[in-house]
Automatic annotation (TrEMBL):
Tree of life domain: Eukaryota
Compositional bias (Acidic residues): 107-121
Region called Disordered, residue ranges: 1-42, 107-131
Domain BZIP: 15-78
Designated name of the protein: BZIP domain-containing protein
Amino acid sequence: MGRSAERQRHVDKHSDEYASHRKKNNDAVQKSRKLSRQKSKAVVDRIKELTDENKCLEDKIKRLTEELCALQSMYSEKQRRPSLSDVAEARLDQLLRTEHLDVPLDEDFVPCSDDDEDSVPDFEAITKNRN
């Protein structure tokens, strides 16, 4: 038998030394178990916190993905169908090319200033009359 076995045989279980040793050991076990429970609780709390954060991030990803799809769809639609201003600008460029005009430009023509917006003829009316 080893030393610890011999030592245990000679220890009087009713002695003050034995009682002190057992108390210290019991206190250490309680402290160890308490720390273990605290660590386990901290891990569980952290898991819950990360799970909640992950759920929020997944919701945000879903929302941003939907927004991205909507914006891509809008952009794609814009590319397929130019806006009225794009169409108007293209038609105006075409009309201003003198070689494509049936009617020569008036020699007295003076471009309107920004202040004369009321005197600017309706573009749609002009283009309808030419066609």
